[in-house]
Input
Amino acid sequence: MTPRERWIAILQGHNLDRIPTDLWATREFLVKFEAAVGCRGEDLLRQIGIDQPKGFGPIRKSQSKPVPPGEDMWGLRHRKISYGSGEYSEVDYHPLANMTSVAEIETYAWPSPDDFEFCGIADQLSRYDGYRIVKCGAYEPFLLYCALRGMEQAYQDMIEEPAILEAGLTKIFEFCYEFNRRIWEAGGGKIDLMYLAEDLGGQHGPLFSLGLYRRFLRDGQQKMADLARSFKIRIFYHTDGSARLFLPDLIDVVGIDILNPLQWQCPGMELQGLVSDFGKHIAFHGGIDNQHTLPFGSTDDVRAEVRNVAKAMQNARWICAPCHNIQAVGPVENVLAMYDEAAKLAVSG
Output
């Protein structure tokens, strides 16, 4: 089977030749990984046997507003923060931070989908061999709102300034809805997945109530998922942490197809419970711990964890992957052990 065929089999509940795999990693780890394996890009994925999706996107052709040096199209400024073995890009300027009215939000210089050239997607897909499943289009509005407004203020807005929050989310939705629609239309039926996301859970519990999710986020997610389905595109959903509270809505209302990343050490995210309660409705992606086992365990620890997750997932549809981006501190031998053990289980099982 090709990587695309494995993903399609997962989505449709068909038989597999082996457990599908995926790779999520930071740039620093990828550089180290490529150096250790001796190849990069598609060659690396094929050598290790990783079924990572393929992505395409539009090219920015013009600007509906002048973009000052150092800013992105949303008006955000970033700075690099070193953590020793690598660096993060952190938001250094929140352009909506001092706004106090809906009018200010609505008159802000929001970007436009007209700034992008979408026909190139059709051209790229017409020349693509279809070896990998294609994932294009994304929607993660509250994360972007937090960057624009400042995280602390964004969460306060849920209670203290709901009208400002709703205005900001509406502007983000309007851009993303039309942006994604043009991507998927240009795709001509060759796009399989979209990335729908919002971090709903923290390490120890939900980040906000189910009521607040339903008020501010669920409708937009449902509309975006409905748009994707109108193009026969499936929904890959990402939320970190303890997010079990939201899964019935995500499955029954939004209609997600795949749940990522399965941080099973968080309360409510125990794998057996997820499989028992939701395994008939969705596929699962991730589950190999990236906070303890992959960065700090031995190769034997990693192999044992892959076996344990596979056992919990034996009556479910599962794509083996780390439960978020592999960090620079992660040993290459541990990551290789993860993929090797998954392949061994598939052959024996």
